Fold this sequence. Notes:
Layout: H1 10-29, H2 34-42, H3 47-74, H4 77-99, H5 106-139, H6 144-173, H7 175-193, H8 209-244, H9 251-267, H10 270-274, H11 276-296, H12 300-315, H13 317-328, H14 334-363, H15 365-390
Amino acid sequence: MTTLIQEPHPRRLLLRLSIGMFVAYLSIGLPLGIIPLYVHQQLGLNDVMVGIAIGTQFLTTLITRSTAGRWADHQGARRTAFLGMASCVGSGIATLAAALMPGNALALAYGLLIGGRVLLGVGESLLLTGNLTWGMGLAGSSLAGKVMSWNGMATYGAMAAGAPLGLAIYHSQGMAAASGLMLVLPLIALVIDKGVPPVAVHTGKRQLLSAIWLLIWRPGLGLMLQGIGFSVLSVFVTLYFAQFGWPYAGFALTAFGSAFIAVRLTFGNLPDKMGGIKVAQFFLLVECAGLLLIFLAVNPLMALAGAALTGCGCSLIFPSLGVEVVRHVPPEARGTALGGFSAFQDLAYALTGPLAGILTGHAGYRSVFLLAAVCAFLGMLLVKLGLTKRG
C-alpha cells in the first residue's frame, strides 16, 4: 500500500516528525521532577500519594498501548498522533487547574492532578504509537530501524531535558507556569507536524489481537529484559553512589543518555542493514557488560563508565527488535504490533522499581545491577535461540 502523497525525501519528513515528537514529549518529561515536589510541598501529601500520582501515568500508558496501535492501523496514524497531542494539551489544562485551586481545596486539586496524569498516559500512548506508524508509512519498512531510532532519540532527549526544565520553572515561577508550558508544547508540536502528509489506512483483513501477540511476544520479552537495566539505573544509581559517599551521582544518567544518543546517531542504520537479530544480540551483551561494570565498581568513575556502556547497549535494542516485529506482521497490523511491543518496555519500567526495591532491602543496592545484568544476558539468549529459529 502506497502513501497518499509520494514524497521524494522521506528522511526530511522523518526529521520533522522527530522534532515534533521532541517538542510534544517535553510535556511528558517536564512534570516528572515537579510532581513529587508539588504533591509534598503544596498539597502536603505523603510518599504513597506521590507514588500514585507518578505511577498513574505509566499504568495508563501500559493499558492503552494496544488500543493506540489499533487506532493507528484503522483510524490513521496521523490522526492518532494528533489525538495524542490533544490529550497532552488536556493534561496541561487539568494540571493548570489543579495548580490554581485554593489552599482549602486540596482534595480537588489532587483529583485534577490525577486526571491530568491519566490524560498524559493516554497521550503518550497515542503520540508514540501514532508517530511510529506514521513514520514507517512515509519511509517504508526498509527504514523501520531508522524511524524507531530517531523517535527514540526524540523521546529520550525530551525526557532528559524536560525534567530539569520543569524544575527550573517550578522553582522560579511556580507550578502554574510549568503547567502552562505543558499545555503549550503539544500545540507547538501540532504546528510542526501539520504539514507532514498522512499515510493511507490499510484495508486488509483485521488481525486478531491474540494472533498479533503470538508474533510479538518473543521480541517483546527481549525488550522487557533490556528495560530492566535502564529502570534499575534510573531508580537506584543515585542511592548506590550515596551508599559509598561517591560524588558525581547526577552525571550517571547524563553518561547513559549521552552514550545512548551518540550510538543512535552513529549506528542507527545497523538494524536496517544487518538485521535486527544480530544487532540486538550484540547490544544486549554490551548492556550486560555495562551493568556488570557498575556492579563491580570500586570508584565513581568506574560506575560512570558502566552507566555510559549501559547506555550504548540500550540504544539499539528497541529498533533492532522492532525491525523483527515489523518484518513478521502484515502492514494493516503494524500499529497494533508496535503498540503491544512497546507495552513490554512499559511493563519493565512499572515492575522493576518495586520488585528491585525488595531485593535492595536484603542484598543492598549493588545486587540490583547484577540482577539487571543477568536479565540482559537472558535477553540475549532469548533473541539468539527464540528469534533466530523462527527467522
